[in-house]
Amino acid sequence: MSGFLALYIFMLAAFTGYEVIARVPVILHTPLMSGSNFVHGIVLVGAMVALGHAQTPVEQAIGFAAVLMGAANAAGAYVVTERMLEMFKPSRKPGDGA
Amino acid sequence: MSGFLALYIFMLAAFTGYEVIARVPVILHTPLMSGSNFVHGIVLVGAMVALGHAQTPVEQAIGFAAVLMGAANAAGAYVVTERMLEMFKPSRKPGDGA
Amino acid sequence: MSDWISILINASYLLAALLFILGLKRMSSPRTARGGVVWAGLGMLLATVATFFLPGMHNFALIGLALVLGGAVAWVTGRRVAMTSMPQMVAIYNGLGGGAAAAIGAVELWRFAGPPQGASQLSNAALVAVSTIALAVLGSLIGAVSFSGSMIAFAKLQGWIDRRFVFSGQRLINGLLFLLLVAAGVLLVWGQLSPQLVIAFFILALLLGVMMTLPIGGADMPVVISLYNALTGLAVAVDGFVLQNEAMIVAGTVVGAAGTLLTQLMARAMNRSLGNVLFGNFGGGGATSEQEIGGAQKPIDAADAAVMMAYAERVVIVPGYGLAVAQAQHKVWEFAQLLIQRGVKVRFAIHPVAGRMPGHMNVLLAEAGVPYDLIADMDDINPEFPNTDVALVIGANDVVNPVAKTDPSSPIYGMPILDVGAAKNIIVIKRGRGTGFAGIENALFYADNTRMLFGDGQQAVGALVTEVKMVDG
Amino acid sequence: MSDWISILINASYLLAALLFILGLKRMSSPRTARGGVVWAGLGMLLATVATFFLPGMHNFALIGLALVLGGAVAWVTGRRVAMTSMPQMVAIYNGLGGGAAAAIGAVELWRFAGPPQGASQLSNAALVAVSTIALAVLGSLIGAVSFSGSMIAFAKLQGWIDRRFVFSGQRLINGLLFLLLVAAGVLLVWGQLSPQLVIAFFILALLLGVMMTLPIGGADMPVVISLYNALTGLAVAVDGFVLQNEAMIVAGTVVGAAGTLLTQLMARAMNRSLGNVLFGNFGGGGATSEQEIGGAQKPIDAADAAVMMAYAERVVIVPGYGLAVAQAQHKVWEFAQLLIQRGVKVRFAIHPVAGRMPGHMNVLLAEAGVPYDLIADMDDINPEFPNTDVALVIGANDVVNPVAKTDPSSPIYGMPILDVGAAKNIIVIKRGRGTGFAGIENALFYADNTRMLFGDGQQAVGALVTEVKMVDG
Lengths: 98, 98, 473, 473
Ligand SMILES: NC(=O)c1ccc[n+]([C@@H]2O[C@H](COP(=O)([O-])OP(=O)(O)OC[C@H]3O[C@@H](n4cnc5c(N)ncnc54)[C@H](OP(=O)(O)O)[C@@H]3O)[C@@H](O)[C@H]2O)c1
Ligand SMILES: NC(=O)c1ccc[n+]([C@@H]2O[C@H](COP(=O)([O-])OP(=O)(O)OC[C@H]3O[C@@H](n4cnc5c(N)ncnc54)[C@H](OP(=O)(O)O)[C@@H]3O)[C@@H](O)[C@H]2O)c1
Known about the structure:
The complex is a heterotetramer, with two copies of chain A and two copies of chain C. By secondary structure, chain A is mostly helical.
């Protein structure tokens, strides 16, 4: 990838990330933090590539640690986010209390 | 540019365009339409490239028309947008009328 | 061409793309909107200058000539034209952009279709990837449709074509036209790249744009122009892929997406769906579903109306299309200022679809210098009408028509309206008994607390100004 | 590796990136938030499966083992942990992500630093572009800082480190550490790529993360975690450039940008600036600016309080940190439902910084099953307090402290508060005379229309439930 294409992608992705969550209400701050924490769990893919191409034992060891941590990031953050968001049930319109 | 990089850029630019204007109030619809009309005046750059590489007279003629139209798009839309937006003066806080 | 020049050029394009995005972002908020277009303008300047330094460019004299000619004519026209003609100017400049995009595609297709250049024995078409031809075809198609469609939209708004152009079987013919175009496009991409076919393809595409736009009523044009604006953006992006120019790709795509959203927002503000605008019937023609309304319209003269407002506590002014026709915005603001000096609390209430384009009234009032914290939109002002002493309706009709709430058979049924009827007194300025855009009667004008001040908007408000000045002698 | 497999892999990555963005978008609106994480989860699954099919991959057994091990442990822990420990779980998973990013950089740097492989006579470092080494160094740096910093944040929230760790000259030492790191990084990029230097570099980076985080108070941790979250995103994006993996670039950058914005939003909701959080003094320690407040706190017993609310027309419940400590959310909802059944209009008023993390109260109330249209935020509820018969404050203190409006020397001066004092009657549940997070007295508790219901939140509300049930016998 040419350097400039990389910069274009970087610029556009940054705008997208910024704008997409710009209207988040305060009550979703913590779940959204957790959710974006999950999204960078994509580091797992990089870790798999690193371990998949590791040759020396040292490389394998670090690569193994990388996959271990990446998988934990992805799996853990998913569960935690899901548990937090599960609680935002759509309202049951109690009517008499609003 | 590889096809997939192109798709990434397309996807991200589309998100950016969509989100960046998502909160526009009704009063700015027409000026913003004009402003985005100006932005696609970048077609001028493509027209210049086309004319700059034109070889046969036919190519030159079409290329000339392209630059002519592209320049008109850019210049005209700029002036019109500017005139419309010029009118959105920041309020002079009349206080007694609000 | 040394390496750092190419880096500088690429950096300029990147910066231009960034400035475009930031500019659009600023343009979508009232406080920053004015700066936004300047940012985008700087980006355009940068990109244009950088392009001169691209490697392998020729024909500099021609480029310069076309640039100066096209730019200067458009600049001067844009400066001179009346504020009320803005929508058609947007249409025409957008059409030219679409035309430029189509022409770029044409140059490329023509080159591919031409005789072999240089030493090669293969045809040019065989040397370029199928995907490149396909993209050039797509860009040409969208650009050409946007070009001819926008020109028709321009002609309609300018009043050169003043009727909708409808005949039976129209949809069928348009459908056939579209199929033909697709067939020609497919042929172009797979091997039959001849100059004749290229020409036929462009003629068909231009025709499609014309045919698509002719049946649409003049009043729906803002939405249609916005749609063509998005299409031009898309065409530019596609051309960007053909020419491998990232600034075009990014700017074009951004406009394509933003324009699509904007089109939807506009249609929604007018309470229409996009499909309804493009293929529907209502709009421009004037559906007449006349009803009988009891009572009579009770006239008032300017002196009485002026006194009523001069001693009111709260006055809400509701401008409509008639204000734009009469060019009465300056007079209205003069009148409002007189009231404000007397301690009257004055606000302007703007319905989202008042006038003939979104933001029409805001633009006119802004032109006259009305500060925008005096301007309220529908949702904010509606709860305040019951506390309003006088609602002054100037050349508005449909947007204050209570039938939208009461009669399901009315063409504007369901459209939210300004609740003017709730005010203590209502004064309506209009020339006579003319209906508005939807062509229907308005019970508000017959209400007990409504008085009609008949006359051209400009003159009637002028009379109010004179009378108010006389109130204290 | 046939061509269409590589297309499928790339398409999976593209789709994953799209799903991530759409997922985040959905997660930022209450109605769609639950679906959002599922979308993102599908993206992750797709990307992970696709990666197995990349050309030239080895060590599948190791990959599978690490994947299952890391995933299973984290999954089970995440399922089991108490809802109140969510912030520290986010911290630890974020730290692990940073660690993974650092480890990826480490593998690459180690390879570059190692002896020549294959037939080449050149060192490995000479074969890769300087920019690639620079990016690997940058990714490692950010990832490592995020790793160790998040771990300290975890330890603080978990209560393992319960004091801020401040000493004089701290900033100087951190500054020196940073300079050393930069120097080591520059050496790595320009030629001195030895295994020893790589190890030293990582030790320094880990140390910096620890040193940066130690002086920050536990209560500021949510903001700090959000910052490290953004940093991990950035590290992932940088690694993506090293590995030429677009999904990583896009997802990482999106998180980096979204996380940066979120950090600012969080700091703003707490009325702090980011600089203040990172380098300030207030926070966690408890600045004591005790004042004398006239009057006495007037106690009430549960029976009287229950009767008062049972016969009220409007009751607003204001939960605070004490509710979370006492885990009283379920009891409170039970109580509110009893009132609602009696025809009382009950609403919950949530201050943006009530509790110890943004959205803390919302999460707890949601957990207990309170529908979110009963929950009002500060701006909506404040105008309604004058019409409120009883405001029931449960374990809240700072967020209802009127000193924020009156005393410029108070540490919370300027923070908008819930206007509880305007209600006709106020009942406050807390254990005793303990101060809140900011460590200051609260004049509200001494007001004429305030009654104190002393006791642990859970028990006090439990008593209210019992008493309300007895009201009608
Ligand atoms: N805003 C948009 O984007 C847009 C776009 C397309 C269509 N529309 C449609 O346009 C309509 C807008 O409603 P509206 O209330 O603003 O206007 P309207 O319903 O079209 O009514 C305009 C009124 O102004 C009066 N008038 C015309 N010229 C005048 C003059 N020189 N002096 C004084 N009065 C004059 C006319 O009555 P006399 O003849 O008796 O004077 C007419 O009743 C809506 O139906 C909307 O859906 C809006
Ligand atoms: N939300 C965030 O993101 C965030 C993050 C960091 C800091 N903060 C800060 O945290 C504070 C939040 O304000 P707040 O009003 O929610 O809480 P607060 O000011 O910390 O007050 C909590 C009160 O609850 C009482 N309490 C403690 N345990 C209890 C129990 N088991 N049962 C009943 N009452 C109990 C305490 O008094 P007793 O000891 O007398 O019972 C204390 O006065 C603000 O200053 C905010 O800036 C918020």
